Amino acid sequence: MRILRWQPRKLLKFTCGFVTLCVMLLVIYTLNKVWEENRCSVEESNTLLDDVCQRYRVHSVDGNLCKDLCETRAIRYVKCTNYRRGKKVFIMECNGRCQAGETVKVVMKTKHRTKEEYDHLVLPLNDDGSLTKDGLEMAKIMMINKAYGDMHFTVSSSQNIFSELWSMDYDQYVKTATYKNADHVALLSIWSLLQQDEYLFMKVYQNLPYVPLLYGTCGEFYFMEYAPPGDILSPGFFTKSPWSQRADAALKLIDVAQSLDTDFYQPVHFCDIKVDNFGLGSDLRVKVLDSDSLFFDEKMSMNLKGPCTKHDDCDFFDCRGWCKINNKTCDGRRTNNNLQNICEDIFIDRPPNFFQGLLHDAPPTIAGELATVLQNCAYPNKNMAEVVRTPTSRETMERLYQLLQTKTDSWKFS
Q1: Which residues form the FAM69 protein-kinase domain (predicted)?
Q2: Architecture of the domain spanning 243-405
């Protein structure tokens, strides 16, 4: 009888192959499970849309686009996207109401909150369901405090806080409504929107070029500009976009990072940086698509506090913290910065993910220096194999910006 004997090299090869197969199967199983948990369906989407329209018909919610969604059907459902962290996202087609005279795709969103998470608006009412004078004053104070506390947003004495935070003129709406409790309906709709950080951020900072346009609302749903990553920002094995377009998008991403650092009353931290969370508008401007992941410095500090035994215990997604090992407490400061994350997760190649970085295949005239600068940007302490806990320097940012602004005739053929 012949006894099979494995040569050491063959045994090692077999073992490596078997382990790789097991890892691949585990990854596929995990991804499939996550997909199952987050997937959406046409049936569920229709149920959600029917529900908000039914509430609109019985005058319990309103907004400037409710009629277009629920009556004239100028806004129609196209598809849903995967649900994540309670957020419901639909791609809709808007016929002439979002952009005058044009049929455009828009994104319709809301973020579901549990009863425990939701800050309810309970106000004194008259017998007919309208607000008492005290109720109106309470709502005004609550919304002023909410807008200032979360976004440092203030209104002048001549402005109406309700109109500023909603999609309609509050006074005109109440004046022309055919039902007595229109003031209460309006305030409940506004308050449901203010519970969503993304809506409030976009509403307050609509003047910024990287904030998607808000077209309107219906109840707790808001309608915003459709700005997919497109071929330029989407990672992949092969990207056909010319270098000039990719370099221009990179410059705009650096501009976003600079703006978040300097253009607000406090620095703003973006804690979920990936290409999926940026898009390109029809004007090719870069847009931030997930402002739920934006945190002002004071709130960021709270997210980075707590007990710890190692630095990883203090991290909040892409925002890396620092553990004071002797005291076993997080010190509440972020150790990296937005540009470091952008360089590491978007600009450079990511072999583990099999994705090309946005700035791959640079023109020969700058390729060598650009590669060095990008490494300094992504790994300021030459710590490629570690979790980065160092901010990218301003000097590196300025040199990177200069290189990307360089124009040569050879770029035409890139």
Answers
A1: 190-379
A2: Orthogonal Bundle (1.10)
